[in-house]
Amino acid sequence: MTSTSPGNKDVFAGTIFFDPADGIYADHFPGNPVVPGSLIVHAFIEAAERFGLDFPCRQLENFGFREFLAPGEYPFSMEVLADRIVCRLYEGSKTMVTGTIKK
Questions:
Q1: How many independent structural domains does the chain possess?
Q2: In contact, 12 and 2? CB cutoff 8 Å
Q3: CATH code for the domain of 80
Q4: pLDDT tens digits for range 49-94
């Protein structure tokens, strides 16, 4: 994971891995495993903690899932603003998930 500070904002980036061997995917959905949205949001909150961001999650806002995500590894970025973290998860050059964690 990395962090940069373009201008006056902090941007953190890394990868999130959803293990295809995890049993949760056996029933979600059989034959076509999909990562539940709640796990994706939780992965962003855990990533913020790993970066040492003291940013208690008070509210989630506008999380959008463009397509179903299969288990696997995905790059992400988190832009830290005064009262929120703007989250993005990618597959290649395509933005798959966007959303905001607010204080």
A1: 1
A2: yes
A3: 3.10.129.10
A4: 999 887 777 899 999 999 999 999 999 999 999 899 999 999 999 9
